[in-house]
Amino acid sequence: MKKLSPVVPASAWLALVAVQIYVVVFTVRVELSLIQSLAISSTNPATLASEVQAQLLPELLPVLFTSFAIETSVLGVVGFSTYYCLSSLGSVKSLLLSSLKKEDPLAAEAAKAKLDSISLRDPLEMSVVLVGLGLSSQLLSLYSIELGDQYGTIVSLGFLALLIYVLYHVSSSARELYLSSVEFKGSAAEIPERSLAIYVLLSVITAGLFLAYWLYSSVKDVNSLMAS
């Protein structure tokens, strides 16, 4: 498989965050403008909220559909990156074992037991579920602003939780394969140990921006492992 540049998923994620920020800012600006104009003209304040809701959606539809198209493309990149990382790690695992069988059959038996303990998730399954959750969140937001606020947020949190799990799974598996390569082959490209707690905390503090670096480092680790 041709190597994936780590810049691609990182840039795609930054684009996703930028689009979401723009949609939020645009929505707030339009809503405030409508509230100001309708508050002046409306004779019944009780109907102000429903009037704002009725006029807000037509204003937002072009922006929402444009952002949906961009975010769908970004989710495709994230899904492919997930598939690439997991399938590449599986290839590294198989190549390491096959090379040991040729060089030292006795060492291969010991390595097989350790490599079998490194359980990799199915690349296609994880990428499909990840993209599916992301698309579900976007579709809920398009279906109804009110419904999207209620259920889209829950699905979005599920998507982010799964993405964090996938990134940690890739990072920890790459680290374990690196240690196995050093133990049985004597050398390998160094894969640093990444703290789940610190990376999750930084992702929360930066409102998801740090996930761009996490994507970058995960793909970079996989590429380094493949090269060695």
TrEMBL record:
Q: Which UniProt keywords apply?
A: Membrane, Transmembrane, Transmembrane helix
Q: Which Pfam families does the UniProt record give?
A: DUF4234
The UniProt entry, under InterPro entries, shows: DUF4234
What is this protein identified as? DUF4234 domain-containing protein
Q: Which residues form a coiled coil?
A: none
Q: Which residues form the DUF4234 domain?
A: 194-226
Instruction: Name the species this protein comes from.
Output: Sulfodiicoccus acidiphilus
Mark the transmembrane ranges: 12-40, 151-170, 196-216
For the keyword Cytoplasm, the answer is no
